[in-house]
Automatic annotation (TrEMBL):
<keyword id="KW-0547">Nucleotide-binding</keyword>
<dbReference type="InterPro" id="IPR003959">
    <property type="entry name" value="ATPase_AAA_core"/>
</dbReference>
<feature type="domain" description="ATPase AAA-type core">
    <location>
        <begin position="43"/>
        <end position="327"/>
    </location>
</feature>
<dbReference type="InterPro" id="IPR027417">
    <property type="entry name" value="P-loop_NTPase"/>
</dbReference>
<dbReference type="GO" id="GO:0005524">
    <property type="term" value="F:ATP binding"/>
</dbReference>
<dbReference type="Pfam" id="PF13304">
    <property type="entry name" value="AAA_21"/>
</dbReference>
<keyword id="KW-0067">ATP-binding</keyword>
<dbReference type="GO" id="GO:0016887">
    <property type="term" value="F:ATP hydrolysis activity"/>
</dbReference>
<protein>
    <submittedName>
        <fullName>ATP-binding protein</fullName>
    </submittedName>
</protein>
Amino acid sequence: MLAKIEVSNFKNFKDNFVFDLSNTSSFSFNQECIKNKVVNKAIVYGHNGSGKSNLGFAIFDLISHMTDKEIVQDYYKNYFNADLDETKSRFRFEFRFDKNIVEYSYTKSDYQTLISEELKINGKEYLYIDREQSSIFRTSAKGAKSLKKDIGDSNISIINYLSKNTILDDTKDNKIFFEFKEFVNKMLYFRALDDKCYMGLEQGNHSIEHDIVERKNLTDFEKFLNDAGIVCKLISQKDSFNKNKILIKFQNRELGFFEVASSGTKALALFYFWYQRLKEENSVSFLFIDEFDAFYHHSLSKTLVEKLKELENTQVILTTHNTSIISNEILRPDCYFLMYPDRIRSLAKSTTKELREAHNIEKMYRAGFFE
């Protein structure tokens, strides 16, 4: 699980910006939202321009060099903070796997160019390189003794170089290393405002309609919409390119789903497209949905959060403007985060007052109770 990220000189994050998911409290309710003492389900609030989207981009920056999964390069334009005259971004991640801690730090001179990397497992150096000093990396990984350590001018991450070029011994640290690699490979980002862009998990473009029908989930998708208050009858047919299309069946004719669906219904279709994968056991390790409920009524937003809470093995972070889902009935105060351009803190850490399950934390938030 992702426990913490620190980032500086990246987009609007000028100085060291810390998002700590491990600073939890001892609330006795909604305990399923915490796993291994780390927030497992989080919702982030912030005004326009506070950096909520950039937080997602910062977290998923490591996808670009650690995996061959989908990445949206347009998200990484204007890489450095415009107020600084520095051309080096710094990232530090902390992950927890049971009682084991993985720390991964790196610097970049641009979106595609690594300068340095350091990986620690339980406080001990496992991998290290500083390309400004040398093209030779060092590693304590058992089984890598005979591996060539000089990577020359290659920009490959030493994490990928190690995993692809040698067979490591069956040791505790090596198992943790591969667990970390697998977690990153299964991370997923998407935003409700753009159905064509996602990052992580897979590669290439997909047709939502074709995918739902191909997976034999049309009936379930229809039920999903009906349960959300969108009463409709769906059928499918092949188009001229032999791709599955979804139609809405009316009394006198059938019309293309995406031709007549509202923005909210289209957003639900996108959610369902990814939800199919989320329901598959251990298919997604980490999910970040930006502006997840931009087109939803607040009651539907609550329903979708409840669905995501059922995903025990997927860590979820949502960003939103919808204050109606700030409720102890849904999450808990250490799972709601208030974001500003220079900091982010949970509600629990934004007050000295003791918070209880019976408190109306939305009303308290609106009254400016949390600072």
